[in-house]
Amino acid sequence: MKTHLLMIFGLFALVCTTYGLQTSIQNDKFQVFLPTSSSSNTYQIVEWSTNLTDWQSVARNFGTTWQNTFPHTETITNVNGTAMHERNLNHPQVYYRLSTNSVQSLNNTNSISRFLQQTTFGPTLDTITNFLGINNSNLNDSPYTDYANWIQTQIDLPITSHRAYFRERSNPAFIANPAATNNGTSLYQVAYNDDLDQPAFNYWTGGNNQQPNGSGVNAIPNYQNNLGEISTIVTWTSPWGNTSYVEENRYNDWLANTDSTGAQKTSNPNDANAGGSNIENQKKVIWYTIAIDAEDQLRQRMAWALSQIFVIGREGSQHPQATERFVTYYDIFVRNAFGNYRDILDEVTYHPQMGYYLTYELNTKSGDQLNTPDDSFPDENYAREVMQLFTIGLWQLNEDGTLKRNGDGEEIPTYDNEDVSEFAKVFTGLDKPSKFVYVNTSAYPNYEEYQNQNYIDEMRFISWRHDYNPKIDLYDQPFTNQWGGAGYEDAIRKDIGYVLDQLFNHTNTPPFVAHQLIQRFTVSNPSPTYISDVAQAFKTGVFTSGSNTFGQSGDRGNLEAVIAAILLHPEARTPSLQADQTFGKFREPLIKFMSYARAFKIESLQTYGLYPFSNLYLKIAQEPYEYPNVFNFYRPDFQPNGPVQDENLNAPEFQPITDVTSIGLPNALHWLIYTGIERDDDDFGIGSKWYPQGRLDLTDQINIAADSEDLIDQLNTLVTAGRLTQANRTTIKNHIDSLPAGNATQRKTRVENAIWLLCLTPEFNSLY
Amino acid sequence: MNSNRRSFLQKNCSAIGMASLYSTLCTMRMTAGAAMNTDGYKAMVCLFLNGGNDSFNMLIPYSQQNGGIDGYDGYAAARGGVGTDANGFKDSSLGTGLAIDRNALLATRLKAVQGQPANRYSVHPRLPFLKTRFDAGDLAFVANVGSLIEPTTITSYQQGSANLPLGLFSHPDHQMHWQTLRPQTRGATPKGWGGRIADIFTQANINGKVGMNISMAGNNTFQTGFYTEPYVTSPGGPSLLRNYDGILSNAVNSIMTDVYPNMFENTYAQKQKNAIRLAEEFGEAFDLASLNATAPNTTSSSKNKTAEQFAGVIKSIKAGKNHLGMNRQLFFVERGGWDHHNELLNAQGGIAYASNPNYNGNLEDGADGLFYEINEAIEYFWNELTAANLQDEVILFTISDFGRTLTSNGQGSDHAWGGNAFVMGGGRNTDVTLGGPLKGGKIYGSYPVLDPINNGLDLDKHLDKARGRVLPTTSADAYLSELSSWFGVDSADLPFIFPNCEKFFTPAENAYPLGMLDGNPSGSYYISA
To answer: What's the predicted TM-score (pTM) here?
Structure first.
């Protein structure tokens, strides 16, 4: 890298204008003219320093235009086609330097692998080689048509609903019916049997197995499943006496797999946990299986990202051992991954799991003479978090995500505690829905029976608990929602809708949401330009890239436009940014773990297509449904010590990284690589059973393992998207070469050791 | 002093946002090195009650209130009435009140105190061990403590003339305040006060391989300094990296010691290298340490997660003191689940299982309540300390996000501000040369007068009369400075550790603002913020 130094000494400036940076002094301001550059392989950065030791970025150019950067977000102006940065001469002295670097453009396979690391739960050899555009020499050039086409294809794929998956696996009479609606919202009422016009079964999760139960079982001993197959339901009694009903067609091999006494060797496959006593794991196994196998990868990644904003943490959630209420909640993000943010706000607010978690279930107005005394007040929990975490955040933002400041240079809060107390009155009068009544199926067909409570359907309204008094909004104006005689339910909906609309339409919401979603997919420290562009897609509802149009103009909050804007932004795509040491992100541990399962073709053994990982949170600090609290696994502004801290930048995914979990991830991957999903007696492994339930298929690597160069080439693309340094390449190659390759077993050891070393490389753990 | 350290101090004295006064201090530190007392062995253990403990049901007025109504009656009225039966278990038929029945408080009534509005206080009926230690002089409370920037009155609060902590009543902000003690700055950039102590305690643990700060509960800002980070371990000790032997360990070492083109890569490599090395070094010493008794199970099947962490602390103290040559250690233990919006009385106090004639399980009364777990864990920790004769060298203290509203949400309470904390350690006898450091059996700070009946609700302290949010009267700075002075922080360094502390007291004149650990047997123990 070439570096030019420029010094400026404040008011008493001795200005050197050598080394390429043109400067001048005008109107008591020191002006630095930023040179133009042309190539997308060239990266330029202007930094300043007070001590010539620590340099912080002021502006950068990775293609055609200069833009400012965090943390300083200095203004860059454009004067007659030349970008310029100005500094008041009475500000403290700083030194400037300009650095220029060129990078070798990534080849197409590595570019695609990198893209798939951003957008899926991990690239595979197939998804790389089948990527349309792999031979396009303009793959990485704006408008990134091949990437845009891939995104469009992903958006168009059928939705893999977690709830449908659960129903299908737990209910032999499953019939998928995505069109069924409840209160106008498709909720995947998949248990409903249209032929019989009744729900097939209700569900029971009280024991070791997920079982279909109830009169419906007897009513349809033979049925046609959603694959068009005629099946017979047979009765199976577990060793501990529970009776299950098992679909014969689908599980013939399981039924045949008996020991000498005629008992099945493995557990009931209808149990998504594959026989583990840990019912709680069921929803997670569904998540793993979908993350690894589902085609709609981008949708699943978006759902995972959204679920990290609208968090229901395990601690304090109702019945964490249940399944269907959690997958129903999660499906809000699966269904609306490319839908509208406002719809998500609505569905989340009315979901009884959230009502329980953020404690507005049965929230009651103050001073109801009959039921609550004057000194009891509505709970403020949801009123606070819906603002702080789901929509506007704590501080007023400009559209580019920078902080607004008042005349004294201070940050400006978005709300105060009076607003919270006021909005608390709005979120009153909601309760979990009525419990399922079997005969009255049309009203509440969705029901996982657990302690006789329904935490699945939309919350219901209780008039006397709601506060109908006039209320004041964020801008100290009276609410303008006029109810007018449509009944209490309509009145409460309008009250809540007024608040949600106000938050959704707040100027903070687009940059607030944009910033966090960008962090989940591409970079931890998006530039103001990047945030602004994505926020613009949120605002306008549309994003256009070449001939591809995502979203719909005028549809504020359209997430199809948002995700396209995130992934097709030059900041996410331009290769030269790799020369910026602050670029990119640290990857989520769960995504890294899933990426190994995907890249190395994990096979499900004796568990009928499921991947029953167990207790990953304890090992890698991340697990589906194991959000530690409402603030997610990490905060957006987390700063680890070291270079990130020195640059005053953020790296959220380092927050859960400790001396324990940093060893936990490679140790968990060690199990996956060398043993598979299984537990052993000297450790807990990553499964819950003593027989193998899943194992990597390393054939594609073993086949080429005799030649260490070939092997590392393939792995460098598959695991590290071409980032592997020459030094680490040599380290790993030397190790492989020290091992024999005479037979398949020896070649397998070569592969296992190579991919275990790779999982410890910084290149695998980061993404840039 | 090496140049790295000088550069660190130069950079971070400004990063912490200090005015020139502090720059002088920083310069002084750089040239002279911090003065500190690191003789002997001392440890502090922070028990963080994550979520905002409703501590006005932990420490409860029991009898006469000076010049007002009966202390208990005022408490019961402020909490909206009695909500429990005579054993302290929730009685749903009683409505929405959050007060514990007075009869339930008799057995946990503390010995008489002076200088507080009431002359008798009780602890929650599920916290009997706190009473035992308090009466024996090994435990003290700090009343109505909270994060502040400067002395704040209800008038200055209402007029907007006070500098207020940013993000009042929000969990992550208040949690950060308690950790950074820099509530005028958002987020973690000022670093934690425990980390800052480690930054300047360069002479402590000079032979130690592991740093001063050890966490049983994951990363935290409190123990992260500009220069130092906590060692995070599990209560059972560190796990070693698998496969880290022979030729593979050479390859791993080579990967971890390289320099990479990207800051995330370099951050990762540095952390990973340390974690691998420390797991081996610390694990060896940890395994040499033993416990007097294993951590209790709250029930036959469920572990007491707080006690489990204390067991890890005990082993780490023994490992540090006896095997790693450490003389100062600061531990972080965390118990979450205190955000009791929805349900307070059962959540803190548990359910009366055993006394229900229809119950045939194995749970004791209250065993599913958080206070039962804390009580059992504290008792276990104390017994482990005394068995190893460590009680005079170790101070346990609690922090929590904030106190909660005195009034009810129906079944629970909401985010508020001032709350009550406790400190446990070997009690001081009247002869200062004997016993432990703590002047226990006292309530420090200023418990608010609770008297809504006569409208005397100590209005100058209640910033929100309707909801009963109490303005803290003792600053977190005063509370934690007291502990840090005992730990060995020089009074001249207190303003570096607690940047606002000089607003509340003058360190050079009295580095023990509460008089709780000052070594003076007759010193004042009452201070108002």
So the answer is: 0.81
